[in-house]
Amino acid sequence: MPPNRPRTIKDVAAWAQVSTATVSRVINHAGNVRPHTADRVANALEALGYVPNAWARAMATDGSDLVGLIVPDILNPFFAAIYSGLNETAKSRGLAVWMVDSGDNSEQERQMLHMLGGYRARGIAITPAHPAANLRAIERIGVPICLVDRRLAKNLWDMVLIDNVTGSRQVAQIFVAAGHQRIAIIAGPQNSTPGLERLSGFRDALEKEGLSMPPEYIKIGDFRLNSGYALGQELLALDRPPTAIFSCNNLMTMGLLQAIHAHPAHSLGKTVAVVGFDDIPISTLTDPPLTVVSRPMREMGVQAARLIMARMESPAKPLETVVLGPQLIIRGSEKNPGLLRWI
Amino acid sequence: MPPNRPRTIKDVAAWAQVSTATVSRVINHAGNVRPHTADRVANALEALGYVPNAWARAMATDGSDLVGLIVPDILNPFFAAIYSGLNETAKSRGLAVWMVDSGDNSEQERQMLHMLGGYRARGIAITPAHPAANLRAIERIGVPICLVDRRLAKNLWDMVLIDNVTGSRQVAQIFVAAGHQRIAIIAGPQNSTPGLERLSGFRDALEKEGLSMPPEYIKIGDFRLNSGYALGQELLALDRPPTAIFSCNNLMTMGLLQAIHAHPAHSLGKTVAVVGFDDIPISTLTDPPLTVVSRPMREMGVQAARLIMARMESPAKPLETVVLGPQLIIRGSEKNPGLLRWI
DNA sequence: TTGAGGGATGTAAACGCTGACATTGAGGTG
DNA sequence: CACCTCAATGTCAGCGTTTACATCCCTCAA
């Protein structure tokens, strides 16, 4: 078994027969160490397998190199992509990113906020679970916070958002252009920004085109696969099922496709058109391939990192909101080949 | 703006007019504090929004509550699932899990190992990038290490593995049972356990059935989507293409499906059968649905947590290896409806 | 009345590191 | 040869906690 106690700077100093200060200087490449001495210390470091204690260093210098990322669902590749952008940018400035999962649940979010606060993270990027209360509490420990993808009632933090309204409007427009009349939506929770904005943006755009959705065509899901499946089934089981469905996030789209697939009388592109919010890996594999509104996910992470680092430098600078545009990727599943059958 | 300096136990002590020791006792529910005093402290904690500094606490108690998880690709849902199991188990014992990405790259793995070592993680679960050298270095800081999903040359650590050989053999057997003669494989890198074992297990099983794969039917990929796509194209473009393909991980299977989809003369289940290692979200959506070998991913995380915590308690206990069985899920894509056409 | 016992609280050292300051000594200048 | 300079190195306080130990004081029994 290896030595149980991690080596300390004192062990190294003793080995090299110098003071701890000299070791510290060598480690941190602070000047004024004779090459001969530096060599001896380097040998000691190597021989003992010394790894500096990051906490102790942070305590002494009053600053960790930790940035937190709190996401509602760590299994959702969408958030993993945000992590990826955030991490890359942070890393280039010597910061490390710790991603944790709130389960989209207020209590767990509070725990995670406290945990990261306790570790004295230098900043926190968060896609908040619904209520705002948690952030007010953690805000007092003085950590820069950046909201990602979701607004909160009070406009108190930097934000990186997606222009959901524009994205949804584009979907409405191509449905209309394809000749659809019976258009439905599987929306997200109405207490979150994306859920709200995608529904209202879609509905408003349809109304501008002179169309309206009857209540039974408006389904409110929870952004998870199962709800896409269940609500998809409900829509398909209607006496007059829609010919086009807008699914408001990746997982629900997967569920919806599954529901269509499982239904004896329906098939994608034949009886029902689908457009999804968020691109998904299988979008090119379905038949017809899936038309989607794609979000620049990595870029959201990059921007969040930028905002956090900027605020670390000037805590008092005015709040900043970055709104990124979604991209409509037309692949075919929005069309309505069965148009004539249904008129 | 909030107070810039996080509150310390001293601030609280001053506010409540007690000593820091008393505050500490209240926080940690160590007894012997008069209710009246405890109340006063509790008020101070609340009023100041105090969040204990986790580093300082770890330094004083010589023990963090941190466990590291190093994965080759944080975007791959497979590893996210491991995280999920690991995190849940660790959390129930008051440990926090920090997942980081090695990019399946030795140098970055080394950095991550050092980072977690620097933060004095109590244990590290890792799916190692290929060479073993890194671990020897970090081993010296005395952290329990548990390998997940991949062996290394030297058997020096606890491990959680999948029985790849059995999984692959089952695939070979159902291909043979379905009457396939021309069977190909898209395998993983041959310097990693899963890549190696899945190929050899598959080949050996076929040979026991009296079949052999010609070299052009054996493609070595890198476990990423693009290589599944490219190698799939190569297989389909052969003069005598295989009627059955075993794809050795989730991402390559996605790529393979894409290649089949894109090929004018081929289609899944009609001209070519596919079985994948690892279940994927779309497996029930393809036509026919995809037959796969599924791994108990969360359970791998749970076991890794168990091994790490056990070794934290008794560092000298004998090495332990847990081998979990994969599960064959037969959905239809292994069949060969085109059998007659090809004979 | 007094001293033992023990609950409540305070004091201070220790954890591993950094950095301001102090000390040492070699080399250069007059 | 005395003095100054400055590079090289050492000393020590402090970062925010916990915890062993010391102290205080109240209660109770003899």
From TrEMBL, chains A, B:
GO MF annotation, one: DNA-binding transcription factor activity
Database matches in PROSITE patterns: HTH_LACI_1, HTH_LACI_2
Pfam family, one: LacI
Annotated ranges, domain HTH lacI-type: 7-61
InterPro entries: HTH_LacI (IPR000843), LacI/GalR-like_sensor (IPR046335), Lambda_DNA-bd_dom_sf (IPR010982), Peripla_BP_I (IPR028082)
Gene3D superfamilies registered for this protein in UniProt: 3.40.50.2300, lambda repressor-like DNA-binding domains
Keyword terms of this UniProt record: DNA-binding, Transcription, Transcription regulation
Record protein name field: LacI family transcriptional regulator
Record lineage: Bacteria, Bacillati, Bacillota, Clostridia, Eubacteriales
